[in-house]
Design brief:
The protein starts with a helix and ends with a helix. Helix 4 runs parallel beside helix 8 (153-161). Helix 4 links the parallel strand 1 (48-51) and strand 2 (77-84). Strands 1, 2, 3, 4, 5, 6, 7, 8, 9 and 10 form a ten-stranded mixed sheet that branches. It has one domain (5-84, 153-376): Phosphatidylinositol (PI) phosphodiesterase (TIM Barrel), CATH 3.20.20. The chain is an alpha/beta fold. The longest helix has 13 residues, at 277-289. Helix content is 35%, strand content 11%. Bound molecules: SN-glycerol-3-phosphate and calcium ion. Calcium ion binds at residues 79, 81, 172. Calcium ion is lined by residues 79, 81, 172.
Length: 379
């Protein structure tokens, strides 16, 4: 969450496609979940497995192995953050600077803190976007990750199209105010690649999200970007990402982390509450009125960690969203204990770094091991 760091198929036909794609019921599915019908209406798989930056627990985020592994494991969606290079190319990258996930300090020492938008694609392609992962996670390191490249949107589309599983794309306009016109650029690229008009079917027994109206889901934290996405791509499903404070939903307290006395960020975030039910309802109403089919709320995780944020998936919040016809995809959840607890509150899938674990939770584990897939795809 960048703000937190620096801040026409019929419904019946769609349901048939979704069932034939091997979808199983969640282990803790409530007796009745209105989100299931809402997802079918929007043409989005339920419950959805959204591979956050690819299978990014096991391979460097937003690179060839992370997306290919997610596709081969059976994710419904490959999630990506888009930004734009100085020469106008859409790329997949989360941070708006390059120091965390590349060797920018070595390649361009004088420009190391400059924003992504100040580099051409050719310059970005000179960076190593894999070695940082090996240093950060030695237990998951692979020599073949060294030297991985930042990907363009075109290259991520190639990966989504390139296997027997046909996942969709779940695309976030990242820091969109830095990239005026990126929503229209995105439309042009998706259109050019046929992703706004074609819905190819996968072979039986394979992930078939490309065949659904929700082949692409667009997501953003920024209301202004949601409005522009809606204007450019009115028929493409959209999700408003939710956060507390910092220009998003108002929090009950304005005390900063520094002044809070909390022992870590996760504890601080978990203590944060929405200012009022009316405030939350106003955001749900706004999302619905501006074309969203769902929300992407932050969630607090049982064991904390740097992905543990505010609890915006309380049962009353989920009911408010569902009552307005909005589905709910919380971010970013990796552990069974959280899949179970948050699912019981009534949500419709998860953003996860651990595609394999969420697939297991939903009762449709990959038949092939992660190790075998990684070797087969060349890593
Ligand atoms: O897009 C959902 C989730 O990815 C939002 O957080 O910062 O990982 O993009 P972030
Ligand atoms: Ca994202």
């Amino acid at each position: 969450m960048l703000k937190g760091i620096t801040r026409t198929l019929s419904t019946a036909a769609i349901a048939g496609v979704m069932l034939s794609s091997g979808m199983a019921l969640a282990a803790s599915e409530p007796a009745s979940n209105p989100g299931k019908a809402l997802a079918a209406k929007a043409g989005v798989p339920w419950p959805a497995v959204i591979a956050h930056r690819g299978a990014s627990f096991n391979a460097p985020e937003e690179t060839i192995p992370s997306y290919t592994l997610a596709r081969e494991l059976g994710a419904d969606y490959l999630e990506m953050d888009i930004q734009r290079t100085k020469d106008g190319v859409l790329i997949a990258l989360h941070d708006d600077t390059l120091q965390r996930t590349t060797n920018i300090n070595e390649v361009f020492p004088d420009r190391a803190t400059q924003p992504v938008s100040s580099f051409t694609l050719d310059e970005l392609k000179r960076l190593d976007a894999g070695s940082w992962f090996n240093k950060a996670y030695p237990d998951r390191a692979r020599a073949s990750y060294a030297g991985l490249k930042i990907l363009t949107l075109d290259e991520v589309i190639d990966i989504a199209e390139g296997g027997k599983n046909k996942p969709g794309l779940y695309i976030e306009t990242k820091v969109p105010t830095q990239f005026p016109g990126i929503e229209e650029d995105l439309k042009k690229k998706l259109d050019q690649r046929g992703w706004l008009s074609e819905r190819p079917a996968a072979e039986k027994g394979h992930v078939n999200v490309a065949h659904l109206p929700g082949r692409v889901v667009l997501q953003t934290f920024e209301k202004s970007s949601l409005e522009l996405l809606q204007k450019s791509m009115p028929d493409t499903p959209k999700v408003l990402l939710l956060w507390l404070g910092d220009g998003s939903i108002a929090a009950a307290s304005e005390t900063s982390f520094k002044d809070s006395g909390a022992k870590d960020k996760a504890s601080f975030y978990a203590s944060q509450q929405v200012k009022s039910k009316e405030e939350f309802a106003a955001w749900m109403d706004w999302a619905k009125e501006h074309g969203a089919i769902g929300t992407g709320p932050a969630s607090a995780l049982k064991n904390g960690g740097d992905q543990s944020y505010m609890d915006l998936v309380k049962p009353w919040m989920n009911k408010m969203a569902h009552d307005r016809g909005l589905i709910i995809h919380p971010y970013t959840v990796d552990d069974a204990v959280d899949f179970k607890a948050i699912s019981a509150n009534g949500v419709d899938g998860f953003f996860t770094n651990r595609t394999s674990e969420l697939l297991k939770f939903y009762g449709r584990p990959s038949k092939e091991s992660m190790e075998s897939i990684l070797k087969r795809i060349g890593y």
